Amino acid sequence: MKYVLVLLCLAPAAFGQRCALEGRVVDQSTGRPIPKVRLFVTQDRLSPAIRATTDERGTFCFARLDPGSYHLLARSTGYRAYPEPMIYSMLSVGSDSGQFPMTIELTPRSILTGRVLDADGDPIAGAEVDASGPDGRYPGTIAHTDDHGAFRFYDLGAGTYHLMAIPGLDTHIWAGFRDGHGQPIGEREIETYYPNSSDIKGAAAIVLKAGHEINDVVITMQRVGLRHVSGRIVGFAGGQYLLAEFRWPSGTVEASPIQVREDGTFYQGGLLPGKYTLSMAYVVQTTVDLTTQDVDGLLIDSLKTGK
Amino acid sequence: MTATDSAGAFSFDSVEPGNYRIELQNAGYRSEPGNQAGALTHLSPGQKIAGLELTAVPLGAISGTILDAEGEPLVGAEVQLIRSKWSHGRRVVSLVQVPRRFFEQLVLTDDLGRYRLDSLEPGEYFVRAQTLPGWFNIETVSDGPGQPEMATIPMFYPRAVTIAGATPVRVGAGQEISGIDLRLPIVRTFHIRGSANPAPTDTITNRAPYVAASHDDGGVKDWAEFFGQFGEDGSFDIAGVPAGNYVVREMQGSEALSDQVRTSVNSGDVNGVRLSSTRFDVGIQVRFEGDASHDLSRVFAHLVPTDRIGATLSTWPNHPGVISNVSPGRYILEVSPDENAHVKQLLVHGKEVTSADFQLDGAADQLEIVLAKGTRTICGTFAWPDPRPIGVRAILVPEKPRPGGFTIVHQADIDQSGEFTFWSVSPGRYRSFVVTDFDEGLWENRDFFRLVSDRGLLVEVPEGAKDNSAIRISPALLPPAAVERAMAQMRN
Question: SS3 letters for B241-273?
């Protein structure tokens, strides 16, 4: 994390001096002055801030300030917050200054909007959309889809982004259900990179320029067939739970409990294809590979696998 | 689970006999189909049910723009929905958990100040907007050192500081209500300061108690409007409070930990508010009429506050004779007796309590519960009209509520062929109705009940009857218009 440290020193309200702290706010990309910017200085987190606003020429003036250290914040519609969130610009108002008036540059905010649809073209509500940071890591900035499947990122900086959609709670709920014929539900939406890939290699980059807006990016969520595992556990009292853990490529771990019947048998449908770790009470632990097929008749012998 | 085809038809094969509740899932529709013919389905062995017709209720949405005092969009402002409900016969205003949003995920305005609240059940909603504190407190501002403090204050739609002046937004099934815009003014604000005794021991975790001030508008509400944190010494400071009358409390989650203190903010800060809590034990005596040997260890008693939002307090299995940690206020007592027993009498200080709630003040309070045998099962039938209404439920309301029953109002779902059952009904005189949009708390309001009781079917469960066969009834549908009329006539 980058810290901006602006150290300013100022004579205590010298006679004839109009402002204790003054400066100008300009657009970082064009250099033009920005009017109606709200500026706040505050000495600590909880005390009220002292405010000022820029005029038509982009200049501001805090007439009276007690000597001391201040955080300076600036906010303007259409621009990113200054300084960026979690970076605290610090200045001290004190004895002497050669740095006034100061110039603050605001970065125009870039906007990215779109929709998340399922394979049939219907909107997916409540999905999480992650825009990776410039370094490509997840999660970056997060937005959620509304009932029309729409999302909006409105405070992005210029850069190259990858988008990933994650199914919301609604989709997760399906996993344990059976269909009208008593069979486990066959498929489910999974994490999908823009435009329609479950693999990061298929992710397309979106280049966003400062102050620009890209609209109606469509992410089509991918569906996969679900698998089941069944078997028996011996050497352990029945009526307990096995924990099935699945690790997404992004590192998220999804855990589902599998009920073990009194006779030690278990069955779990609605599982994503992939490798699972099955564990019980941190004593029994085994792996099962459901990448290409269902697994039936798995025998877990706690006396052999137990520690 | 099954999916409907393009004609909306569905089928379930090889279903075990029994009682089923059918749920619908489709973005934009209510998942709980409400109580309508077929939503509760009774399936007998070998039976094939065809022609069930379910109505999917479309959900609505409210959208609008939140602006600041200068007409600029407020970015990242929180928009809340509040509904007025009935609870134990009183109106309570409570925050609506917006559907499909993760725990504690808030509805915030975007860069243009716009918000959208979707997936809303049909009904009336109050809309409230507030700015959220960031890392720095730039919500409270001044023009220089020692100058008056000003803050952007929360507002209710259309332009009210308290809910008393607010107008609810009515959302019909599937309706999109747009243009619910709010402008939050910047006004002179003050502080409410004071301390809690004893000081909260936890001031750090997200379960740490906090201090809350709410507009003292006479209503019972389950959320607070202005917040502050406790220091380690128990001191607190609530900033950004506009002039008005307030109720101040120490809270944890949505429960009050302290007694409430009323205060007025006029033209200056309020200092020295002392928060404390009075707690005492209430003795519980349970007697089973005509059977001294009856096992009373499985009878549980619960005190539910009625004049404020607070935790329900219960007896513990290993400590049956007392309810601890009771604060002064009004309560109703709920009792869960074992099967086939009912609460015959409830006495406070040896005096029969005839009202629905009673006052508890101190450690000398004693409650006496008299149980008796002799509950009955009531089986009912209802002829589903055409078109079939949604949200239908059969209810049974005592003519004179007997205090202390676990259920004041009995309610039952009606299955596809119009059958329903009330279990374990105590002796007494009742009125039975079939209603749409059942609200238990409203039916516990005696003014309301008095206005509609004539329209109900009189049902009498005799006392001490040897015969315990089911009583059969066929109540009629109470038209929604009659409910609305009664509500309009009620004294508040």
Answer: ECCEEEEEEEEECCEECCCCEEEEECCCCEEEE
* CATH of region B190-275, choose from 2.60.200.30, 2.60.40.1120, 1.10.630.10, 3.30.505.10: 2.60.40.1120
pLDDT grade for A259, boundaries at 50, 70 and 90: confident
pTM: 0.83
Q: Which residues from chain B sit within 8 angstroms of residue A124, using beta carbons?
A: 27
Percent of chain B residues past pLDDT 90, beyond the cut: 38
Q: Residue B204 burial (CB < 10 Å; 0-12/13-18/19+)? A: exposed
Q: Which structural domain range is residue A263 located in?
A: 227-305
Domain membership of residue A5 (yes or no) is no
Nearest-CB residue to A179 (from B2, B112, B237):
B2
CB A63 within 8 A of CB A47: no
A173-206: per-residue pLDDT in tens? 555 566 666 666 677 888 899 999 988 889 999 9
Residue of chain B minimizing CA distance to A21: B144
The C-alpha of A156 sits at a distance from chain B's nearest C-alpha, in angstroms, of 11
Q: What's the count of helices (H) and strands (E) in chain A, helices before strands?
A: 2, 25
User: What's the pLDDT score for residue B65?
Assistant: 98
Location of structure tokens 């504190």: B133
Which chain A residues are closer than 8 Å to B9 by Cβ? none
Q: Judge whether B114 is closer than 8 Å to chain A, CB to CB.
A: no
For B358-403, the pLDDT digits (tens) are 888 886 788 888 888 888 899 999 999 888 888 899 999 998 876 5
**Could you say which of 2.60.40.10, 1.10.10.10, 3.40.50.720, 2.40.160.20 is the CATH number of the domain covering B280-373?**
2.60.40.10
B489 at interface of A, judged by CB pairs closer than 8 A = no
Q: How far is B86 from chain A (nearest CA, A)?
A: 29
Nearest to A222 by CA among A249, A255, A256: A249
Query: Smallest Cβ distance to A50: which of B3, B100, B144?
Result: B144
Domain boundaries along the sequence of chain B: 60-188, 190-275, 280-373, 376-489
